[in-house]
Structures are given as structure tokens and as C-alpha cells.
Amino acid sequence: MKRLFGKLEDGRNVEAITLHAGDLSATILTYGAILNDLRLRGVPYGLTLGSPEIRAYDHGPMNYFGALVGPVANRIAKARTVLDGETLHFEPNEGPTLLHSGEHGLHTELWHTAALSETSVTLTLDLPDGKGGFPGNRTVTAQYSVTDHEDAPATLTLVITATTDAPTLMNIANHSYWNLDGTPTTDGDWLQVHAEHYLPVDAQMIPTEITPVAGTGFDLRAGHVLRPTDAQRYDHNFCLSQEDRKMKPAAVLRGTSGIEMRMETTAPGLQVFDAAPIGSGDMPGHRGVPEVGFCGVALEAQHWPDAPNHATFPSIRLGAEDTYRQETRWQFLTP
């Protein structure tokens, strides 16, 4: 089902597309390829955070909520890097750092609906050479689909692909915030991350070196109950693998309601962000009130942050002969 969601400040229409399969439904916006809402029949609230108002997203306080961020997600130190011997300079938007490709990243783009069925939508976007400081004429495709079979959990799948006509950098992430209880915060939720290593960060949130999680507050292999009062905060990349394109378990999130989300991805990393400093200002979320700190947990499947500036990190270089591809699945189980 497709409907008008709202109009951007420049007058362009944004559509909301709702997919259905069994007990699962997902609503996708053509603006930012945003996962705006996700519902399970019998659960009286959405499981991912969003807003019913386009103003919340259109350069608003919820601009990253559910969006695809990129073409290079996360941070690039000093807003510069070197690609094939050429220094690329970007416009910083987090102090001296480039975050999520700047103020005009994928999350601000109006995507084209290329294919649509009851259970799947394919969105496409063309990026011209030089936009945001990144080389290459690029085409990005995002396919969201839902399935719900009697012998398997209800599942949301996202497949992202990209091509370029010149060497470039590519690392796209879905930036959904998950809240499985319909409550103001994720206090009491249980999070497990299938990672043996993580990336500590410096004062500017730039990763330093690959570090074992063992013996640290980042050892989430056996699961951990999230508390806003905990001293340990999370806005870090967990190293799932050095390999790209191989599907692997990433995380399990279980709400105090007993609803569980299992996540797996082909991406080599998972950024875990506890949303401690995040809010929606005066814009309402789907519960009808503004979102506050710790409102959800962002679990962002992606390559590792600042990868072009770290020779030992999995590369995010995309050549003209290559196709970027990331697949992520979210499975939902009720008690």
C-alpha cells in the first residue's frame, strides 16, 4: 500500500509504502529510504522508532531515525582520507569529523520507487560524481521485504547494492532505533552481540585499534541488561568478522515484554548506539510524545568506522568493476 506521507520543505511529495506478510507489517518512506514503522499483529505499539510527521525527518531532530545513512556511514577522521593516491576532503559536521557523509547524505535524499509488491519494495537513487565530496556517478538500490511463514519467525530483510563508474568509497547502514516494549526507554532490555572484538574510540569518537571484548564492558557475548544508570555507554563498532558478504549472527535484543529480535548480516561490523544523548525535540514519535534519551538501541550493520584511514580494517573501496552488497535480516519472536 502506498500513500502520501507529507511534503518536504521544497514541496516534493514523500510517500509511505506499507508492506504486509502474515502478522508483520513495515512502513518505508521514499525520503531517506526510512524504515518508519514496524508492527506485529497483537502488539499495540511499533517496534522501531519513528514519527508520523515529515517535519521530524526533513532536516529535523529525527533525521537519522530509520534512515539509510551513507554513502559512507559513521565517521571519517578529520573529514579527509586518501583514495588511490588522491586526498578527498569533506565538509565536517561533527566538530572536525565527517559523520554519516555530512548534512546532505543518503538520509536527505528522495528515492525513486523502482518496484513494489505487497511484500517488497525496491528503492533506487542516483548520486552524481562529486556529491558530498565522493567521486563516481553512483547508483544505490535498497530492497525491503517482509516474510512470515508458519515454520519461521516473521522477518524483515534489507538488501542494499551500489555501483559506480569510478573508484569511490561505499559503506551504507540502516540507522533504525529499536524499542521492543513501547516504553520511553530501553531500561531493562537484554542485548547480546556476537563479537569477540570491538573498536575503542578517542575523544572525537574515532576508532583506535582492534581490541578483544573479554574483560571489558563491551563483552556482550553472553548478553547484558541495559540500564540508563550504567556507567558503560555504547557508541562503538563491534567487529563481527574481517569478511564481507558472508551472513553471520550479529545481535539479539529482548524487551522486558519478552518480544525478541534476532539480527544477522553480511556486514563485517555492527555499531551499537544506546541513544543516550538522542531525543526528538518537540516532534512526536509514534507514541504521540517526543522521544527522549535512551529511547531505543541503534544496531547499525556496516563496515568499520574510519576504514579508509586504517589499513588493517576491511576496505570500503568500491571500484567500477565491483558491486557493493549488504544484506541484513531482522527476525521477530513473541513470547
Automatic annotation (TrEMBL):
InterPro entries: Aldose_1/G6P_1-epimerase (IPR008183), Gal_mutarotase_sf_dom (IPR011013), Galactose_mutarotase-like (IPR047215), GH-type_carb-bd (IPR014718). One of its GO terms (molecular function) is carbohydrate binding. Transmembrane segments: none annotated. Pfam families: Aldose_epim (PF01263). SUPFAM superfamilies: Galactose mutarotase-like. It comes from the Bacteria. Keywords: Carbohydrate metabolism, Isomerase. One of its GO terms (biological process) is glucose metabolic process. Belongs to the aldose epimerase family. This is Aldose 1-epimerase.
